[in-house]
Amino acid sequence: MPQPQIRIETEIPGPRSLALMERRAAAVPRGPYQGLPVFMKSGHGALITDVDGNQYIDFAGGLGCLNVGSTPATVLEAVERQSGQFLHSCFHVLPYEPYIALAERLNGLVPISGEKKTLLVNSGAEGIENAVKCARAYTGRTGILVFEDGFHGRTLLTLSMTSKVEPFKKGFGPFMAEVHRVPYGYCYRCPYGKQRESCQIECGDVFESFFKRHVDPMTIAALVVEPVQGEGGFVVPPPEFLRALREVCDRYGIVMVADEVQAGIGRTGRMFACETFGVEPDILVSAKSLAGGLPLAAVTGRAAIMEAAPKGGLGSSYGGNPVACAAAIAVLDLVEREGLCARAEKIGSRVSSWAKELSQSVALIGDVRNAGAMIGIELVTDRETREPAREATAAVRKHCLEQGLLTLVAGNGANVLRLLMPLIITDEQLEEGLAVLSEGLRGARN
Ligand SMILES: Cc1ncc(COP(=O)(O)O)c(C=O)c1O
């Protein structure tokens, strides 16, 4: 029997976390979301220790930033090496090799054919903003096409593109004009009332009608899509949906932007989710796990599109910070060396078969879906009505936390358990975590 790795020493949250919560309330606005009520002290691999000495198994993975775990040795070495040389110079003042090396590496990895170029910025939202800027400069058009339940960030342009009103958008308008929205390919809650087995991919077929009724396609610069929706509920669309989007973009000269901020860097079983679906975007934005949790995002796209912005038209003070670039190169090495894409596939198939088996006795489980290790378990109060089980989802997460498992939630109804365990999690840790989650799901009341 493997030794259990979860170690709970106090009530959860413990006294030190409670004290920090009070300090947080006094010093920090309530706006920044906090998914878990405990404060982190340290983390190694897929184990996290809080300030009270409780040790948890991590199924939350820093909201997708920790695909390679909390303290991967080779990434730390790369950070130390680069920090010993210089922390920053600003790429616009004095350029440096790690930026170029990372751009070259991503140009080779991102699934877009032909010549590519990469711009580095600080965050997922900044990456999406820059993808839109490049698409506008290239096409000379202004419109942006996005999807219901999409999440692209919290800056004013990306918030305009993000779908959820509460808590993201309420009170923060007015939003950008020229942002148009159509339904996503969400099979469990098909916007057209179809069943996946017999549908005609109506979700990929709305555009002609949309372009007649709502907007001239020749004004659309960019279609921005998450190949697997993150915040929207870990929604895995039918591959035909994404292929239909590609065709629409080709037909009307629209730049297709894949938002892989959450789905990229090995999570879905390939380095990038677009590969999983066999779709080639024109620009791909990666972030989150790219630099192992250091702030970095990359906008990689066809050279002609990326070159459309004039000299000096793109950039930011910290974008492509050298320490973050060095970390990212080490992360990409690690993903390749350790076969983490294959590991993501293995984790995904183990967890989804576990959840499907459990769903035979736990009626709360309405749907189980995954693309590699991007795994969503949608909970419903009734399998017929598919009413989101918001309270039960919160109860499952509370149980897990108290028993030493960190989880997150997603979905418009806050009823999807979103599992983002680091891909370096051991089999023993994975099974120990699943045992806790089983108990939580079995014990939760609808
Ligand atoms: C798909 C997607 N796009 C964009 C963003 C925004 O990224 P950031 O929080 O780094 O600005 C996120 C963040 O969760 C995301 O999941």
Count of DSSP-assigned helices? 15
CATH topology of the largest domain: Aspartate Aminotransferase, domain 2
Please give the CATH architecture of the largest domain.
Answer: 3-Layer(aba) Sandwich
Order of helices and strands: HEEEHHHEHEHHEHEHEHEEHHHEEHEEEH
Query: Largest sheet, described in full?
Result: 7 strands, mixed
Uncertain segments of ≥5 residues (pLDDT<50)? none
- Give the strand order of the largest sheet, numbering strands 1, 2, ... along the chain: 4-10-9-8-7-5-6
**Percent of residues in β-strands:** 15-25%
Give the overall shape.
globular
| Domain unit count | 2
- By CATH's scheme, which homologous superfamily of the largest domain applies? Type I PLP-dependent aspartate aminotransferase-like (Major domain)
Please report the total strand number as a whole number. Answer: 15
Indicate the radius of gyration in whole angstroms.
Answer: 22 Å
CATH class of the largest domain: Alpha Beta
Bound molecules: pyridoxal-5'-phosphate
- Can you give the mean pLDDT? 97
> Which structural class should the secondary elements be placed in?
alpha/beta
Q: What is the percent of helical residues?
A: 25-40%
Distance between the amino and carboxyl termini: 34 Å
Q: What is the topology?
A:
Layout: H1 15-27, E1 40-44, E2 47-50, E3 55-58, H2 61-64, H3 73-85, H4 97-109, E4 116-121, H5 124-139, E5 143-147, H6 156-161, H7 165-169, E6 179-182, H8 207-213, E7 220-225, H9 239-252, E8 255-260, H10 273-277, E9 283-286, E10 297-302, H11 303-306, H12 322-337, H13 340-359, E11 365-371, E12 374-379, H14 390-402, E13 405-406, E14 408-410, E15 416-419, H15 427-443
Parallel strand pairs: 3-13, 5-6, 5-7, 7-8, 8-9
Antiparallel strand pairs: 1-2, 2-3, 4-10, 9-10, 11-12, 12-15, 14-15
The protein binds pyridoxal-5'-phosphate (PLP).
